[in-house]
């Protein structure tokens, strides 16, 4: 009885780590949205990646790992996909309500299951079909023009497309990470994301530099700090907790995103948004059920 009690406590502690990870990642999105629009998206991604590259490189050096890894082509692809995803996510956060951009981003588990069936021959079963239909029904409810007009929201098609491109790129990046994890150290995989971001964005940042003011620097520092805190708690929480259970806890970021949107950006939600968000989360929960967790 006592052992069972401590096991439950230990499992709860792991869940707390993942809740904190979702909390800090959601604060990162607040920082992105708070930064003056004159600071380009690529510059924000560059700063975020530079800090991550510095921290990860120190860890790799301390562990005496080969900094370049083994499967360089796939590592580079992972970095490219991660960079595209982050640019798209930041763009969506800056150009649409935080609650809507967060919901769209969290369609990525559905895309993971779909692409796993196409790219690595994972079986597409009945659960995946149900998950896809449920998730897309939720998206249609949220993005319905009548629903948006009732909240005084205007979204252009390009911004919505970019938001979905971010979710798709995230899904593809996850699949490459899973394949790489069979042969590469996790910190090498992590490093290639900011490494490729810094390399590809450096020329753009150099020739189109916009000097941040004090307020911008505070929010940029917040992006780096909250991202690092989120990554740390996520890594701790994922060590022994089942992936499917961890994924479901991460959906709390949708709740946090909606809350911050209301508190900090005067965003509105109604019953249609709530129903749509619940359907999207239900779809992602179905898509990450144990039957689909072969990736």
From TrEMBL:
<dbReference type="InterPro" id="IPR000620">
    <property type="entry name" value="EamA_dom"/>
</dbReference>
<dbReference type="Pfam" id="PF00892">
    <property type="entry name" value="EamA"/>
</dbReference>
<keyword id="KW-0472">Membrane</keyword>
<dbReference type="InterPro" id="IPR037185">
    <property type="entry name" value="EmrE-like"/>
</dbReference>
<feature type="transmembrane region" description="Helical">
    <location>
        <begin position="73"/>
        <end position="93"/>
    </location>
</feature>
<keyword id="KW-0812">Transmembrane</keyword>
<feature type="transmembrane region" description="Helical">
    <location>
        <begin position="127"/>
        <end position="146"/>
    </location>
</feature>
<feature type="transmembrane region" description="Helical">
    <location>
        <begin position="217"/>
        <end position="237"/>
    </location>
</feature>
<feature type="transmembrane region" description="Helical">
    <location>
        <begin position="41"/>
        <end position="61"/>
    </location>
</feature>
<feature type="transmembrane region" description="Helical">
    <location>
        <begin position="158"/>
        <end position="177"/>
    </location>
</feature>
<comment type="similarity">
    <text>Belongs to the EamA transporter family.</text>
</comment>
<feature type="domain" description="EamA">
    <location>
        <begin position="158"/>
        <end position="287"/>
    </location>
</feature>
<keyword id="KW-1133">Transmembrane helix</keyword>
<feature type="transmembrane region" description="Helical">
    <location>
        <begin position="16"/>
        <end position="35"/>
    </location>
</feature>
<protein>
    <submittedName>
        <fullName>Integral membrane protein, DUF6</fullName>
    </submittedName>
</protein>
<feature type="transmembrane region" description="Helical">
    <location>
        <begin position="189"/>
        <end position="211"/>
    </location>
</feature>
<feature type="transmembrane region" description="Helical">
    <location>
        <begin position="99"/>
        <end position="120"/>
    </location>
</feature>
<feature type="domain" description="EamA">
    <location>
        <begin position="18"/>
        <end position="143"/>
    </location>
</feature>
<dbReference type="GO" id="GO:0016020">
    <property type="term" value="C:membrane"/>
</dbReference>
């Amino acid at each position: 009885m006592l052992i069972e009690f401590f096991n439950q406590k230990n499992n709860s502690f792991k869940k707390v780590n993942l809740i904190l990870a979702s909390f800090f990642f959601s604060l990162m999105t607040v920082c992105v949205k708070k930064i003056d629009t004159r600071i380009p998206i690529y510059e924000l991604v560059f700063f975020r990646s530079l800090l991550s590259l510095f921290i990860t490189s120190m860890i790799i050096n301390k562990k005496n790992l080969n900094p370049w890894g083994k499967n360089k082509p796939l590592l580079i692809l992972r970095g490219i996909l991660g960079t595209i995803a982050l640019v798209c996510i930041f763009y969506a956060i800056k150009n649409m309500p935080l609650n809507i951009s967060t919901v769209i981003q969290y369609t990525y588990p559905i895309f993971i299951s779909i692409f796993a069936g196409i790219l690595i021959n994972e079986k597409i079963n009945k659960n995946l079909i149900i998950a896809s239909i449920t998730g897309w029904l939720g998206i249609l409810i949220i993005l319905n023009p009548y629903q948006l007009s009732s909240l005084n929201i205007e979204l252009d098609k390009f911004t919505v497309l970019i938001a979905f491109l971010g979710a798709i790129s995230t899904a593809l990046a996850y699949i490459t990470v899973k394949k790489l994890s069979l042969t590469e150290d996790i910190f090498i995989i992590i490093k290639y994301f900011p490494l490729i971001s810094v390399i590809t964005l450096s020329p753009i940042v150099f020739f189109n530099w916009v000097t941040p003011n004090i307020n911008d620097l505070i929010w940029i520092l917040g992006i780096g700090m909250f991202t690092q805190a989120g990554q740390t708690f996520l890594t701790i929480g994922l060590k022994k907790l089942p992936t499917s259970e961890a994924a479901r806890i991460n959906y709390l970021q949708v709740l946090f995103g909606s809350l911050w949107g209301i508190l900090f950006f005067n965003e509105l939600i109604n019953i249609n948004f709530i129903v749509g968000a619940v359907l999207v989360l239900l779809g992602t929960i179905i898509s990450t059920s144990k039957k689909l967790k072969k990736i």
